[in-house]
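Hey, can you fold this one?
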Amino acid sequence: MERRIFRICAVLLAVSGALRASSDADACTGISLVAGDGGHVLARTCEWGGSDLESRYVIVPRNDAMTSLTPSGRNGLKYVSQYGYVGISVTQDTFVTEGVNETGLSAGLFFFPGYGGYEEYDSSLDSSTIVDVELVGWMLARFSSIDDIVKAIKDIHIVAISSQAGTAHWRIAEPSGRQVVLEIVGGVPHFYENELGVLTNSPGFEWQMTNLNNYVNLFPGKASSMKLTDEVTLSQFGAGAGFLGIPGDVTPPSRFVRAAFYKATAPQYATSKETVMETFMILNNFDIPIGIEHSKGEAPADLPGATQWTTSTDLGAMRFYYRTAWNSTLRCIDLRSIDFSKVTRQAHPLDPVREQPVEMIRVRNR
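Sure. Predicted structure:
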């Protein structure tokens, strides 16, 4: 028992330390697209520029018993999974950051520092308490609809894993395409309908939506020439001048604007599989080189980029795709091939070998 408590304390210290160290190095960008066949695709990046998240993909079966973590140990909310799910964890296998369950419900955690505010931890409420980094797993294991989550969340207490850690907000989506953003402020959960289908980090979702109005002048395509005088005419230097002025930095407000316009102007592809490929193409624009988030000489040497992984989920076909900073090859988990009544809980490295495969081209000399 003492060893178990020691391990839990070590985990809490390690995670809170990582969160604190990376509080200025977080950046997650989420988008969604609709295919011509009506399929909904949800995609996102996960950036963490402070340390290796040691992420793994997890498979969780039905009828899996779980006891949530609290700041004082593994003694929180107890529940049994009604649905099986697939997701990606960070640091610990129960800290699922993005995933989808067998009903097509999707949930993901996005860092939200400085604007969220959970209720204070009260050890007398341990039986209904869960830490924020385990909330995605709870939602995927227990629910098939957003409305059910909205009702159930009133009966639990969501707290920070440590007083030194930052806060999060969440994106939740159904196969129908409905999306909401969950933000907890002043200890009170707030759900916002996300009809735009975009999410980044701080400030809050409502502010981000209002801020889009600052870019009402942007439009896709080329800009028309402008004649200043009879002798001087201005014309665009190249394609896409209609987006001249779109913010290009990696701050959350700028990424929100960029993601909104890239999503809104993306062509609609016939199938959800083609649409999955388009989400990866769009999110390539949000890959963050590791050096941009750190002062010169301070970037971690073991991270090839701050964007540690990117996912795209085909909610209709029930397929979960991902790529990583170490290997940009797309990998796919087909939930329909998994028997969640028989499969065991498991977790595996996203990259068995952290090396980008290179295909050599054979050239015929004659």
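The mean pLDDT is 92. Let me know if you want another pass with a different chain boundary.
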